[in-house]
Batch of 4 targets.
Target 1
Amino acid sequence: MFSSHGRLASSLTVLLLAGATVADNARSRAEDAFKTLQGWYNPSTGLWDTAGWWNCANVMTVVADLALVEPSVMDNASYVFNNTLIMAPPQNPHPGPEVKVNSARDLSARVNQAVNASQWLDSAYDDDGWWALAWIAAYDVTEDNQYLQLAEGIFDGLTKAWGTRCSNGGIPWNPSNDYVNAITNELFLSTAAHLANRVPSQKDYYVDWAQREWNWFLAQGFIGENNTINDGLLDNCQNNGATVWSYNQGVVLGGLVELNKAAPNETYLETANTIAKAAIETLTDSNKVLHDSCEPDNCEPDATQFKGVFIRNLEMLQRASPHDIYKEVIINSADSIWNNDRNGQGQLGVDWAGPLHNPADATTHSCAMEALVAAISV
Ligand SMILES: *[C@@H]1O[C@H](CO)[C@@H](O)[C@H](O)[C@H]1NC(C)=O
Ligand SMILES: *[C@@H]1O[C@H](CO)[C@@H](O)[C@H](O)[C@H]1NC(C)=O
Ligand SMILES: *[C@@H]1O[C@H](CO)[C@@H](O)[C@H](O)[C@H]1NC(C)=O
Ligand SMILES: *[C@@H]1O[C@H](CO)[C@@H](O)[C@H](O)[C@H]1NC(C)=O
Ligand SMILES: *[C@@H]1O[C@H](CO)[C@@H](O)[C@H](O)[C@H]1NC(C)=O
């Protein structure tokens, strides 16, 4: 009796220790990746060198995602959010004509206009959506209302683009190109749904926009025959059969998780699970490591960012509707990145199965870091 009890106790101890070691590894890997990431952070631009404007919204989001589960990086993350808020707007590559503050050298003018959304809008509506979600992520960790206010302002700017094509709905890609793509509309859905859960006084307004977008999205041909989402629509509003990118299977998942929280409807998580499983079937290799079809040579400068977006949103779905296969994709991708896709400086590359493919830059690194961060929580 005593000895078997003792054996049980000691094997429990071993199990607990093993669990703790795995978690510590995931944490220390992600923290290590954060230190490497900050080697690219440029305090005078508020952006990460080697990453473009929209990419940087995703880089900032991974910093927020880490801070949410790892309080020890909170001070560094808060510094980044504030500094980026003040310093980044002059880097906007296509600011609207009325944005005067962009040219102001005067720091106090910038501080005064910090939450003025017009500084963050550029000529691509998807870019605007990435920044809205990035500021929501910063709000989630800091509870600083100015970040939420900025996200609301950006969303308000996007609503003005609603409804010119395809059943008089949706958001086109940008003001001068009416290509209707999935990502812009998924971002609009996700931003509206996130805001519905964070701005109680305007909840109905944001739920209404999210549902309007989602019902429109379902009625168009974005979702192809294998339940994967193609890049966009033809001029006649039919599915254009273009590349099944990982990020297009991702943003929609987080959007539906948030919408289901704000206005429960069992179809939301059902559809999210169908899309997530189809994406895993289509985009992971035999080790359940995620890929995009551009690897390794043809992903820069945009598609190097995509897989992290999928993983971030898959992790949101895993929290709302857990499936072993989601956990497996997150863990296997993170392990493979760490073991096979890291150079001597700790920089992470584009092909998560490895070997490391140059360049490893702030886009490939932040993208892979998203998997290391997700692995902390699953
Ligand atoms: C975090 O902030 C401290 C203090 O400013 C700084 O020394 C350190 O390099 C920062 N770490 C990262 C990862 O940026
Ligand atoms: C925010 O960043 C700006 C620019 O670096 C700086 O001048 C200001 O002191 C920072 N504010 C806080 C509260 O850290
Ligand atoms: C926001 O910035 C735009 C462009 O500089 C300006 O026209 C507008 O008045 C600003 N809004 C506020 C509330 O300051
Ligand atoms: C659907 O999956 C089948 C089998 O993997 C594949 O041959 C086909 O090309 C896929 N269709 C699309 C539109 O991706
Ligand atoms: C649930 O969502 C689906 C898809 O948007 C919609 O068709 C259906 O009417 C919704 N059900 C309810 C009860 O609102």
Note: Residues 224-226, 228 surround 2-acetamido-2-deoxy-beta-D-glucopyranose (ligand 4) (CB under 6 Å).
Target 2
Amino acid sequence: MAQSLIYLLLAWVVVTAPSDGNPALAQKCESLELPHFEEFDVINVHSSSVFGYSITGNPTQTTIDFCHVNVSLTHSGADDIVLTSIWLPFHGWNGRFQATGGGGLAAGYFDSALIQPVVDGYAAGSTDAGLTLNNTLLAGDGSWALTPEGKLNQGLIKNFAYRSIHDMTVIGKAATVALYGQRPHHSYYTGCSTGGRQGYLAAQYYPEDFDGIMANAPAIFTPRVSPGDFWPVVVMENIVAPPQCVFSAFQAATVRHCDPQDGATDGLISAPDKCDYNPKTLVGQTVDCPELSASVVITTAHADVAAKILEGARTSSGDFLWFGNPPGAAFDGLANTTVVNGTIDIVPFSSGEAWMKYFVAQDPELDTKHISFDTFESLYFRSVELFTDKLGTDNPDLSGFKNAGGKLMTWHGMADAYITHPGTTLYWDKLQKKMGGRHAVDDFYRVFLAPGVAHCRGGYGPVPSDPFAALVNWVEKGEAPDTLFASTTSQGGQVNRNLCHYPESLRYRGGDLNDAESFICSLSSYNTLNMSNPEIYTVGWVASLPVEGDAAGAFLDEEHGLLAS
Ligand SMILES: *[C@@H]1O[C@H](CO)[C@@H](O)[C@H](O)[C@H]1NC(C)=O
Ligand SMILES: *[C@@H]1O[C@H](CO)[C@@H](O)[C@H](O)[C@H]1NC(C)=O
Ligand SMILES: *[C@@H]1O[C@H](CO)[C@@H](O)[C@H](O)[C@H]1NC(C)=O
Ligand SMILES: *[C@@H]1O[C@H](CO)[C@@H](O)[C@H](O)[C@H]1NC(C)=O
Ligand SMILES: *[C@@H]1O[C@H](CO)[C@@H](O)[C@H](O)[C@H]1NC(C)=O
């Protein structure tokens, strides 16, 4: 308490320092001295003052002034060059540090991720984890996974998996000491997708780095998720590639059929486990297809493709490998096609394709246009075998993080095809079993599912408005978020929801369907209460999918103890 009062006073001093360019800080910035770091060798530090950096899309502020610190570093034995950027605002530093993550096969987004934190008064950091090979490559293309000799680049994989967010955070905290003369009083992490995975990783392996972690739509279980993301392409290659108009018809029909099953016909599927949509019901119907300038009659093969994509990756004998497109999610992310001169071509999801080529097959020439179901199955198991240790990120023991007082918050769209929310609820389930049940877990870990929301943003359902503020309140004021306010205008009018904290889910109690107050949070709608142990909940959506004795049954049994009964 006394300590935070001192921080407050210090922060106040900084805030009220002369702000016309803040010459003292700017001067300090130009010759910033960072300490020696144990974790890595610094190659180069370059810091300079940036004035009037212009930003767009912010109604109240159009420019920011900050100290831009670039640190390049290397790890002994890794032959890597990691670029790390820390931005430290010259005016109104709020006394906090915010680390930011990446997405796909990239570890960080630099400017686009750092602007908002700096506008909000945070010192903030981003890292490329060495994946751009000293700015010669776009990290997202994934080719960094192989050395010039064609072997897995273990150093970079280690950086991507866990090392670089930690390094960046160590540098960021040191930079606030060097510039402002004090460590941040609170440190946060924020990221989505791969950025979400990086956040879980931090909670699992560097439990003291952050007081609060916002890790949304996390790519935990990456060694399963990534080949799973390539499944729709394999299905289309081996059966038929439908035009997008056909997929849109399946998506719309799924929503029509399953939306009412959660008790509210609001255009949103809030209880996907109840969704029993059968694509065969559309066979024979005609859909208008602008991209072909024609009408298309939906065939049995089209329905088969949609069913397999909804079901998710399976072995060639039909056993569960991973979760499919959530019902109501758009197909175009992972099952994209385009019409070229009247012919329908498959457009593979680039990160999924890169994963198969560079990480799993380790063959840049892999013919991703012709992968049989058998080959897919062996690539899937190879992915799991090679990368689960480093990139599984599913260690359910968060006791270090809990004991350090950390809070981990996640929201996940339920119409996210790229990283499906059952992966997140599977982790939640493992965690609560390991750490004393759901109420014990509530103290430091909360998950919010958002019906109709796509990957990290977008879709057609209400998107959380300011989840980060909720996290900061939780960390600094002890106000744990029971619900997360979300809204959208994507369908015209405004639709609001108070998203429930898992395992509770939205239940309609009557009234205006656009109004958050018309819904309550309740336990029973898609979870099964185990009466002999009311603290432990079984996730219906997860438990209903795998069949006893199949690959997933074995996976879930052995590694997660989920299907023990
Ligand atoms: C830091 O690196 C970025 C990206 O390479 C570059 O745009 C920027 O000018 C650098 N700033 C400093 C102060 O070195
Ligand atoms: C990395 O790139 C910078 C800027 O292009 C260059 O000055 C430096 O020599 C490069 N480092 C290495 C080790 O190649
Ligand atoms: C689908 O592919 C088309 C053509 O390449 C591309 O313009 C579009 O952005 C892709 N859609 C998605 C969701 O990736
Ligand atoms: C489309 O067809 C025309 C005429 O046959 C040809 O010149 C063109 O290269 C084709 N375009 C593509 C993208 O294949
Ligand atoms: C319910 O919990 C008890 C005690 O933990 C366990 O033995 C049993 O298998 C569980 N039943 C189900 C259906 O999960």
Note: Residues 1-20, 525-565 have pLDDT under 50 and may be disordered.
Target 3
Amino acid sequence: MKKHNFSAGPCILPQEVFGKASEAVLDLDRSGLSILEISHRSKAFVDILEEARGLALELLNLQDKGYQALFLQGGASLQFYMSALNMLEKKGAYLDTGSWSAKAIKEARLLGEVDVLGSSSDKNYNYIPKDYKVPSDVDYFHCTSNNTIFGTQIKDFPKSDVPVVCDMSSDIFSRDIDFSYFDIIYAGAQKNMGPAGATLVVVKEDVLGKVSRKLPTMLDYQTHIKKDSSFNTPPVYAVYVSLLTLRWLKENGGISAIQEQNEKKAKLMYSEIDINPLFDGFAAKEDRSTMNATFTLNKPELKETFEQMLADAGINGLNGHRSVGGYRASMYNALPLDSVQLLVEIMDELETKA
Ligand SMILES: *Cc1c(COP(=O)(O)O)cnc(C)c1O
């Protein structure tokens, strides 16, 4: 039985992408070769990479605006350091909204001063701090748009006179915002774009080249820009599967269409959490993520029953992260509304058993 996959990442991708991705392992576009055996310098792959880079910018509405899209490796976790290495001369300003932000702050501190503008660590990151201003005497402002673990999401980004760097790993391509507000966006592919193994970095070229330190070749964004994201062997298969997902997104109406779907799913999920007396939402209401809904069951004696019902219904990946506990329903782009509907029905049914 095909499961309903609420996993936080790696996570569900469109079913048709799985089909096409598996075909390409045997025979890429009737070339007689597998995607896994072709040269990364072959025309077939260069075309794939160029299309993926172009489509990422097109979907974000950033083409012809001085941005470059790169497919790198090392995950979003390497970007914590790499973004600071390329941007931090003296001081970076950070918003601390969760474990991923805290990790980004730790890496930046290896390179210079860090000004933490606000933190929600006092309440186990269940809200987004709002009472802060981005100073103009810092090199850049860094934030995490969606806090995958805690289920919070920045809805309004602050005014900033300095370049903005954003970890968008878990909500990129999910909502229609003005992406030109950001100067560097990075995202591990494995949450809304593709399989693990590639990291998308979208960077505005004119913010680079301003730090005085000597950058290691592989950690310099300009190396990868100059070589069209092929300085070394790119993660060929992860790029290909990301391209399939980006094509799927475009064919289905792009970001604004998927945003509508994502809002429907989130509305259904959160109204159940709010109405059903057995469950409590974790995140502050105004900061709730449309991607990851975190909640707890307030009758521990029903835990076993609930989890058996989930298992019987083929629901996968609902366990919360260890730092929050409870449950987390991750509702990324490819998760059908039907899966959320089913989960909500099970929660309703549990209420009748209580
Ligand atoms: C998953 C995640 C990361 C870590 O990504 P890796 O690719 O595993 O390094 C960083 N930031 C956010 C917001 C995430 O959701």
Note: The pocket of pyridoxal-5'-phosphate is lined by residues 9, 75-77, 100, 144, 148, 167, 169-170, 188, 191 (CB under 6 Å).
Target 4
Amino acid sequence: MAASGEPGRPWQEEEAAAVVVVGSCMTDLVSLTSRLPKTGETIHGHEFFIGFGGKGANQCVQAARLGAKAAIVCKVGNDSFGNDYIENLKQNHISTEFTYQTRDAATGTASIIVNNEGQNIIVIVAGANLLLNSEDLKKAASVISRAKVMICQLEISPAASLEALTMARRSGVKTLFNPAPAMADLDPQFYTLSSIFCCNESEVQTTHFGSPQSEGLHPCPQLSYMLVFIIVLPLQGAGDSFVGALAFYLAYYPNLSLEEMLKRSNFIAAVSVQATGTQSSYPYKKDLPLALF
Ligand SMILES: *[C@@H]1O[C@H](CO)[C@@H](O)[C@H](O)[C@H]1NC(C)=O
Ligand SMILES: *[C@@H]1O[C@H](CO)[C@@H](O)[C@H](O)[C@H]1NC(C)=O
Ligand SMILES: *[C@@H]1O[C@H](CO)[C@@H](O)[C@H](O)[C@H]1NC(C)=O
């Protein structure tokens, strides 16, 4: 299968998407200030910007920029942030056929205040993301079942993620599950439904496998998953760049060894942390060494 998605060359939606994300979109509202405000205090910041975030969309954007035919199944509000988000997805040549808009909640937002030392306070209102439901997934069944790889995270309702993973596995689609943000009482079905369970250090500590007596990790032998440990600097969006890149390799270079896919994905995430912002830092295929493709 040839990867098309060079910037400026959209793929035709009649073709099956190779990478499908069932996940979140969040609008980041970022204020830069000299210090963090105290309770009840109003302070002046020196810069404000709006960014596109949400783990689902981030991972999808990275896969698309590497050339994957990608689609996202997600829900935003019927508001200006939602409209802008859909435009952003289109600009990244991601199919928005199953990007739903609802009147019942606002587009997910992350309000972020960052001081000069880089310390931050963040409030996430998941909003429309939590309304992605079973009916929405059923409408998207054909795009999920024809994919090579489906990615899920935990910024939509766990029930919706579980249903999407079940649908994918039933159709023989590889599932890449990123248990983020970490959840202590993760439903054990997430382990059996994941072809690859991909988490970072803090996420592994929060889930079952980080029990103090375990030396690192030893996945239960009766479960059919692989566990991938990622240790990246916790910089904005690097983990999502890694997961998106891994989905790209799983979909387009299935014959590479997992080790090689991890090396290449790690390289791409390392490139992303050298630029500013989240999605704005994700590299395109044209900016990367040919040896990665
Ligand atoms: C979104 O809002 C517009 C008007 O602002 C309306 O025409 C449209 O039907 C709404 N769509 C949904 C899905 O609610
Ligand atoms: C793991 O990822 C989460 C975001 O999902 C991040 O907040 C956290 O800092 C990361 N932890 C490490 C050790 O990289
Ligand atoms: C992967 O390997 C199989 C058998 O070794 C081969 O039939 C297939 O064409 C290869 N796929 C790709 C994408 O190279």
Note: The two ends are 13 Å apart (CA to CA).
